């Protein structure tokens, strides 16, 4: 067997804010992908993945069937037959490796599944998000369900609030000088500890106020600017967002990148922000002149995501 491909995702804006009901914008990232496959003799990564699927199967057995039910017998049969998730999506990098796996399993084994081809009303999108949230919680302890949703639909998704999500039309890429890029921290980040740090910070009234008054308002402004192609305004808001994250989310920024982060704000060559929960993996960069950013960051691995 060989299942369909599911792609990585990038949350351009909204990390942490969407936990507190602010806006978010996620886009598929087709450079990385995964699919369910089977082999007769499992070894190495495939064997590890197969063992992980056994644990996932046990978890899905106990999931509330009012939310979603699966053809578990067939799932177990396929796992026993050497099924694994063959993926190029780096794990712990904030680009949705578990989301693509969840989307694959739902696509193959869910009963009465909502398909990509039907008319995706808001209610159906929210139902999918709830299903994916319940499924992906196996990997992260608590999941918004957005990564698998993005991977499953392979569409940009605009999160207006927890109960209001919609497919988004994003401006088509131009062959300009500006770019959104990924900066490889070359270390793995784990979602759960980062989210726990955030939840502890949320107990502090000053942090909550900063989140609402600064972080969320800059995030929302960035999304509006990006969707409407207001590039000049976008970079002003991204700079402000980068400053706020540097000031208040330091534990989520790998310490080796504190100087690099600050350097971007001081020189205006690029601005950095978290990609996913942080703590490692990729860091997202925005620049009006990619050649200049590349020169400034020549010691690091960069990948272009979107051109302005």
Automatic annotation (TrEMBL):
InterPro entries: GHMP_kinase_C_sf, GHMP_kinase_N_dom, Ribosomal_Su5_D2-typ_SF, Ribsml_uS5_D2-typ_fold_subgr. Keywords: ATP-binding, Kinase, Nucleotide-binding, Transferase. Residues 83-147 form the GHMP kinase N-terminal domain. Signal peptide: none annotated. GO terms for molecular function: kinase activity. It comes from the Bacteria. Pfam families: GHMP_kinases_N. This is Mevalonate kinase.
